[in-house]
Fold:
Amino acid sequence: TTNADAAATSAASAAFQAMNVDLQFTQSQYGLLASTAFTILFALSSLLAGSLADKYDRKLLTLGSCTVWSLATLFTSQASSYEEVLAARVVMGGACAFAVPAAYTLIADTVSKDKLAFSNSIYGSGVYLGGALASLSLLLDESIGWR
Structure:
């Protein structure tokens, strides 16, 4: 495996250990949380979100998305069972989907055409930067716990 694969496997294993100690769920349940629980509803909601971003106030859609996403994150931190964490991840996936199409169109409305591609690339790189920062959360988990 590559160093990146090894690091990702190590990070996933550490996150699983941290949450499992507290909530007692299996590695396959964690796998569902880390992948499918979020991405299926995100993918399906994205189709609806794009259509709604064309018809309604994109700033309000973004605000609503961020609010629901934040509440789902808060609910995750207070969860006391696997089912509660799973429900929060599903809601989070649906809410996150509404931010993406609204953001790209808001960027297009505000940035000049000669800087649009660069602006979109900065926004798009946030996904990967966020993933990198999330990996650093394992360090915080070691010192203060996953909650």
Summary: The first helix runs from residue 3 to 23. The chain is about 90% helix and 0% strand. The two ends are 31 Å apart (CA to CA).
